[in-house]
Amino acid sequence: MSIPGSIPIAERRATVAADLGRCALWLGWQCIRLPLFLFLLVLEPVVNLVLGALALLGVLTALFWKAFGPPYLPFFLMLSISLGLALALIVYRKLLRWLS
């Protein structure tokens, strides 16, 4: 059963314009992806060191001040900021894996 004036699905083929459009989009994506990936790859050691060190230092500082510090210290805020830094490092690594 077909509708008059419609093209059956089996007879649809990709046109040259569609192929050129797909090729242009793919090429554009590669022109964006590759420089971004290389830039993030060069920065990876610095980002790993800074985010990892700040996350570890924040957790250790929060635990130290919880044990020996004043009672009004915002412990959960310090801990959540440190865990947020660790999460940012995980997101950075996932982004690198997605762009590669």
Task: Summarize the structure in words.
The protein has 100 residues and is mostly helical. Helix 1 (16-68) packs antiparallel against helix 2. Helix content is 78%, strand content 0%. The protein has a domain at 34-99.
Topology at a glance:
Elements: H1 16-68, H2 75-99
Helix pairs in contact: 1-2
Quick summary:
This protein has a domain at 34-99.
Helix-strand sequence: HH
How much of the polypeptide forms β-strand, as a percent range?
Answer: under 5%
Global geometry? elongated
Regarding quaternary structure, what we see is single chain
Rg, Å, rounded: 26 Å
Q: Estimate the helix proportion, in percent.
A: over 70%
Major beta-sheet overview = none
Mean pLDDT across the residues is: 89
Helix-and-strand structural type: mainly alpha
Separate helix tally? 2
Distance between the amino and carboxyl termini: 47 Å
Task: List the uncertain runs.
Answer: none
Give the total of beta strands.
0
What characteristics describe this protein?
mainly alpha; 100 residues; 2 helices; 78% helix
